[in-house]
Design goal:
CATH architecture of one domain: 3-Layer(aba) Sandwich
Strand content: 15-25%
CATH class of one domain: Alpha Beta
Number of helices: 8
Structural class: alpha+beta
Helix content: 40-55%
Oligomer: single chain
Largest sheet: 11 strands, mixed
Length: 390
């Protein structure tokens, strides 16, 4: 039995050697062909390695989300909420105010982004948002109003982070041409690309854009059931479109909102209205005081006689009558004193006037005498001079 086993082992060894030789020949042939074609192959390759497949991530939209200096805390939280809802975003530190908007295009190119969401603040009150397509345009400028962040509202909705949303648009977006442009930008910015590495393969939320009162209302909901049950997640805000530009942060204005009014102008009008309201109120008050009747109607003194105890009421009435009589007597005495004082003052004034007249007459007589004496003296001098000349 032993020699048979040895023969089997020898046969197995020879077969293995033959297999190795054939493998070496194949590798040499492959090396030669690769050298000819200029392709470099790996030295070693494991059999468990998967075969490379085509990537499913085709729509490689990247959105640069940044803000300029000057926004307040609520605007910053809104930007943070939008970043959490957009797994395909790329962030950038705050942009300085002195920089022009054309710098944003360079930033997006450095970050390999083709869409931009820029937040600008004015006076720590007003927030403006830019949506732009970096390559060829267009770009849209919005005024953001009625901001409510997710942390502020504390709503019941809770969707999966990184999931893909369903974008719901109003019918008005297909009727008006400028809204069609805005719709395309919104879909490319807020729509999460399919098979994005940071996204989840689920659809459990809806972002609705409703056009009402010349504004776009943004709402974010969680899908609770297939029947259409929704729960709001947040954030919520209103976009008031101002202008659409041909290029990215540049170019001619394709469309302009004729009904747009700046928030500073709106506040000025409100202050004027409040001022006019105050003046009207004061005028009405003065008119009421001037035109109000002094005596509306007479009250009956004895109307409350039969209410309560009769004796007490009678005593109170007697006391009131006595007080009124005393007050009338005092008032009459005071009036008589005033009359006497007035008469005395008038008499004094008359005496003073009479004395002044007397003194005035005396002064006038003295002046006349002086004038006559001066005239007489002048005449005497003239006569003397005439005699001397003769």
């Amino acid at each position: 039995m032993k020699p048979k086993v040895e023969n089997k082992k020898a046969k197995n060894k020879s077969a293995k050697l033959k297999n190795k030789a054939t493998k070496k020949r194949k590798l040499e042939d492959l090396d030669a062909s690769s050298d000819d074609e200029g392709i470099q192959l790996k030295d070693t390759r494991q059999s468990d390695e998967p075969v490379p497949k085509k990537t499913k991530w085709v729509n490689k939209q990247r959105v640069l989300v940044l803000c300029a200096r000057g926004i307040n805390h609520r605007d910053r939280h809104l930007m943070k909420d939008l970043k959490t809802l957009m797994p395909h975003h790329r962030s950038e530190p705050k942009m300085e105010r002195w920089k022009t908007l054309s710098v944003v295009n360079e930033m997006s190119e450095m970050k390999h982004c083709n869409k931009v969401v820029l937040f600008e603040g004015r006076r720590k009150r007003d927030l403006y948002m830019w949506l732009a397509n970096v390559e060829k345009g267009p770009s849209v400028k919005f005024l953001i109003e009625n901001i409510n962040t997710m942390g502020e509202m504390k709503l019941t909705g809770n969707c999966l982070r990184g999931s893909r949303p369903i974008l719901s648009f109003d019918q008005e977006f297909s009727k008006q041409p400028h809204l069609a442009v805005i719709k395309e930008l919104l879909t490319q910015v807020f729509g999460v690309p399919n098979h994005h590495p940071k996204s989840q393969p689920f659809v459990d939320r809806v972002i609705s854009f409703t056009y009402l009162d010349n504004r776009i209302w943004y709402r974010h909901f969680q899908i609770l059931s297939e029947d259409g049950g929704l729960a709001e997640v947040g954030p919520r805000f209103v976009m008031n479109p101002i202008k659409i530009f041909e290029g990215s942060f540049s170019g001619d204005a394709i469309w302009e909102n004729a009904d747009y009014q700046s928030p500073a102008k709106h506040r000025q009008l409100l202050r004027k209205a409040a001022k006019d309201k105050y003046l009207n109120k004061q005028k009405q008050k003065i008119d009421h005081e001037v035109n109000a009747p002094k005596v509306t109607h007479d009250f009956d003194k004895y109307a409350d006689v039969f209410q309560g105890d009769e004796e007490e009421k009678a005593k109170e009435l007697l006391e009131k009558e006595e007080q009124e009589e005393a007050e009338e007597a005092e008032r009459k005495a005071i009036e008589e004193q005033h009359k006497r004082m007035k008469k005395k003052d008038e008499m004094k004034k008359l005496k003073q006037l009479a004395q002044a007249k007397k003194t005035g007459k005396a002064l006038a007589k003295g002046k006349k005498k002086q004038k006559t004496t001066l005239k007489a003296k002048k005449k005497g001098k003239n006569k003397v001079e005439a005699d001397d000349s003769d």
